[in-house]
Write a structure and sequence with these properties.
single chain, 12 strands, about 325 residues, two-stranded antiparallel ribbon, alpha/beta, ten-stranded parallel beta sheet
Length: about 325
């Protein structure tokens, strides 16, 4: 049994079906559900509101939204609204996005570190119900506040967790964030270096590793049929390794494998292209960077991530049998 466990949903499920999944996870003792927002498919905010509306205890996080496409005032008011719906249950997971997607929609991610630092600074002040004037490179606000007239005026308990993969962003998370969302599709050894970077930032902020939350996304495909679980994960990795180079780099995947997959996949990738390329993902890679296989195999791999610094696994339920995954890790 795991002390803490969370669920990660993206776009594989019908949204209404996702409501049932989240209710079942709450029933089985999961502490949080995190909704993805990465590709141009499903935004995080609408599902988060839906999950919050049909549950009572489970926390609801964005895993993760980016700091480029929402005006800072709108972002703060959105989180305020979610907190009105589910007080003290909302978590803001926010990341620096990635190219080529950002570039393809006209976003020039210049100085991503500076942009993120300004976002966290202003957002925290707004959620603390302060009146904010700030003249930065990326955020310029003049005397704005969350001007609640009807409702709760007190500061909102919406912790800000930075999604970070690279060492410098991880270090900054330790310096300025309330927690970090560590990335998926990485070997457990990656965590050791990430924790070292995180501790550098924590020392600057006067905090210790023990008091800083470190949930981690973990790709998890569970099936009583080992081969079926592995094949399902191959499909996911085929797409992610080709289209999200920061994950491929952190995974330590060979350049030859990535380029071979990219030669087959278009943008966006079609189902047929993924099927044609998935054989290029070796099974040993699946085992090295995901928790895939039978229930016992999945539990053992997730425990490895915990042993290497993860405080709460956020299980990315790839494949169709999400109920089996929840039952595999259930607390209740």
């Amino acid at each position: 049994m795991f002390d803490r466990i969370a669920l990660y949903l993206q776009d594989a499920h019908d949204l209404r079906e996702g409501l049932d999944v989240v209710r079942y996870a709450e029933e089985k003792g999961f502490e949080a559900v995190w909704q993805a927002e990465s590709r141009l498919v499903r935004d995080a905010i609408v599902p988060m509101a839906a999950y919050a509306a049909v549950t009572d205890r489970i926390k609801v996080g964005s895993g993760v939204i980016n700091n480029w496409t929402r005006n800072i005032g709108l972002l703060a008011s959105t989180l305020l609204t979610l907190d009105d719906l589910a007080p003290n249950r909302i978590i803001c997971g926010i990341g620096a996005w990635w190219d080529p997607l950002a570039k393809n929609v006209g976003i020039d991610r210049t100085k991503p570190m500076k942009a993120m630092e300004e976002t966290v600074y202003v957002l925290r002040k707004l959620l603390n119900m302060e009146r904010v004037t700030f003249d930065g490179e990326f955020h310029k606000v003049n005397g704005i506040e969350l001007d609640v007239v009807h409702g709760r005026r007190e500061p909102r308990n919406v912790p800000i967790y930075m999604g970070a993969t690279g060492g410098k962003m991880i270090e900054m998370a330790g310096r300025i964030a309330d927690g970090i969302v560590m990335n998926y599709c990485v070997p457990v050894e990656y965590n050791d270096t990430a924790i070292e970077q995180l501790e550098k930032g924590l020392r600057e902020s006067g905090r210790t590793l023990e008091e800083f939350d470190r949930p981690q996304l973990v790709v998890c495909s569970v099936d009583e049929d080992h081969d079926k679980a592995i094949d399902t994960t191959r499909e996911l990795l085929t797409q992610y390794l080709a289209q999200q180079p920061h994950i491929a780099q952190a995974s330590g995947v060979s350049k030859d494998v990535v380029e071979s997959i990219q030669a087959i996949l278009g943008w966006p990738a079609t189902h047929e292209q993924i099927q044609a390329a998935k054989h290029l993902v070796p099974e040993d890679l699946v085992h090295r960077i995901t928790a895939s296989g039978t229930p016992d195999e999945a539990r053992a791999k997730v425990q490895e991530y915990i042993n290497h610094g993860c405080t709460c696994p956020i299980l990315y339920a790839v494949g169709g049998n999400t109920k089996l995954l929840i039952d595999t890790f259930a607390k209740a």
